[in-house]
Amino acid sequence: MKFRKLFSLSALAIFCYTNSHAQTTPTITLHVDQARANVSPTLYGLMTEEINHSYDGGLYGELIRNRIFKDSKTSPEGWSLVKDNAADNASIQLIAANEDHIPYDERGQAINGALSTCLRLTVEKVSGRVGIGNEGYWGIPVRPSTTYNASFYIKGTARTEPFRWPWEPKPTAPPLPNIENNTPGPITVSIESSDGKTIYASGTINLEKSIYWKKYSLTLTTSADVHPTKDARFVISTNRLGVYYFNLVSLFPPTFNNQQNGFRTDLMQMLVDIKPKFLRFPGGNFLEGPLITDAFPWKTTLGPIENRPGHKGSWGYRASDGMGLLEFLEWTEDMGAEPLLAVYAGYSLQGDHVDAGPLLQPYVDDALDEIEYVTGDTKTYWGAKRAADGHPEPFKLHYIEIGNEDWFDRSNSYDGRFKQFRNAIETKYPQLTCISTIPAKQYPSMKVTGKEPEVVDEHYYRNSWDMWEHASQYDTYDRNGPKIFVGEWATREGAPTTNLNAALGDAAWMTGMERNSDLVIMSCYAPLFVNVNKATATAPKAWQWDSDLIGYDALTSYGSPSYYVQKIFSHYLGNKIVPVTAENIPVQNRPLTKKDSAEGIKSKVVPTIFYSGTKNDSTGNIYLKIVNTKAKKQTIKIVLEGVSNVSPEATNIVITGSKPEDTNTITDPEKIMPVTTKEKIKGKRFNKSLPPYSVTVIQLQTN
Ligand code: AHR
Predict the structure, then answer these.
(1) Parallel, antiparallel, or unpaired for β 278-281 and 44-47?
(2) Is the pLDDT of residue 181 over 80?
(3) Which of 44, 619, 699, 700 is geometrically suited to a Cys-Cys bond with 651, CB 3.0 to 4.6 A?
(4) From the CA of 284, how far away is ligand 1's center (Å)?
(5) What is the spatial distance between Cα 416 and Cα 453, in angstroms, rounded to a whole number?
(6) Alpha-carbon dihedral of residues 643, 647, 648, 654, nearest 10 degrees?
(7) Which regions of 157-260 does DSSP assign to beta strands (E)?
(8) pTM value?
């Protein structure tokens, strides 16, 4: 096939390097009239999971850390006792229904099975304000003229003697102070500075006298003259003696599109701006959990937040599951993208697996239920549940990923597990394509036998040298094999977010995916989010994984250089692949790794310029992407073949910086940004100067 030959030609051109002192001008030729293969319409998407406080303390709008008090069994993490007068006597304590260490009289305080732990505030001597304070996720964001929605369950006990079976022990703990009758009355709710000296917004609720839980809601509005800060806390307080119980304490700022239980606006806007075509969720490791019992429990992430107990998560902290299955789907919808749903496939991170056969069937059935929730009409059981949850319209779905990184499963059980899932899913939903997480090319001994998967998921976390070395790896992939989904990839340089050098690695790698997007049908960078807070006296460091795409704290956010590469690659993309050939591309020597030396490799050269071309065949726009990884400017010749006319003005979109380590941060968020300029060009052959360390998109109008 001619098209394939051109790919090989292009690959050959890359490998027929001249040396770095080449006298001849590097030349890139676009064979525009041979642009026949389609760019995959789903080439660029996003991947997400709960890592680095991506949702709790990230995209999910909730501002209260540990809102149902289950983050730790031993202490109310994120919460503290607030006491204006040091001489007052008060304490806070976790009360977990059914925990043996809780005094007998205190058990059974559950609101329901999910809200089974609460916080008790005992006030025994009071002359000022006493209450419970929440530090948020490394602070509470305060902005001027902003209305927050607060709610919480509270009861001030008028205790009755609990029912006791004859065989149950008499209480041994000292009785609670007999001060219950004081609790009814006003309870103050405030957003205030962490030291309590400045109140930014406050309101009251009137606590009724009752032994039963009641939910109270109110809004809190800051004034116009408030200076934005995250050095703030949320406080619920009283000035009366008593024993008070709290559960599900929640505080939401305005959310994206004002959705209930919604998302942080700045982060959401950054995602929308990428224009992703799909969202892969819920993981990643977060799908699998450390143990089989920790897998993403999609059924308990549905419905009112009152019904969500949260779960252990995979990255060292508990997930509230406020970001549940429907929130993922609505997030996808808000971005104009499609879900790419990963279903738990019976393997978890610490190595446990469920063998194919009857023991696996409940997991297969669970995945079928999940697909029905996403796509079923309202006459189906799970489709009706989705409608009851507020979304009658089914979601579009084309791909189901079976598990995650199952090459870690040394039992080799994936072959059977994949088949069992695939058979069941394709029988019930023939329109769906199941993605295998074991690409045979990388793991030949773990190959899935029988019918070859139509799509396989490959993951690459590399440094920039590796990206440059392997940027053309897909040029030579077998076109008769499965399609490729690059479901996780990143150039890992810079922390917590990537630096310019990583962006150069990313861009080079993306030119390879783009040039081969007849084969690479989908790709998504990972991880997407990172809360950049370092450890404090009371809270641990917010992130577990270095080199992420978008960084934030409670108040502000920024895109890494890699983020801007994602954005411009996604925006400036045609629908046809333009075959490109190149000559005289300068190369550089790659320093040998220990592995290379051990394997007797003497030297390695990698190109210093990377490129890809696409064309929009209805507008005639051509998008040429070129990466210059060198510290010096490089001038190249660009030749357009097979076009009649080229408009004399080109648009350049350039990302560059002065050194590879340059990066964006919370305090310097726009150091590396794309800059758009217009440039006059002369006809179909013109010279182009590429700035040092740069990614350039040249948009040309042809006919
Ligand atoms: O992206 C971070 C992690 O890397 C993912 O959770 C996992 O799939 C991969 O190993």
Answers:
(1) parallel
(2) no
(3) 699
(4) 5
(5) 13
(6) -100
(7) 185-193, 199-207, 214-221, 232-238, 242-252
(8) 0.95
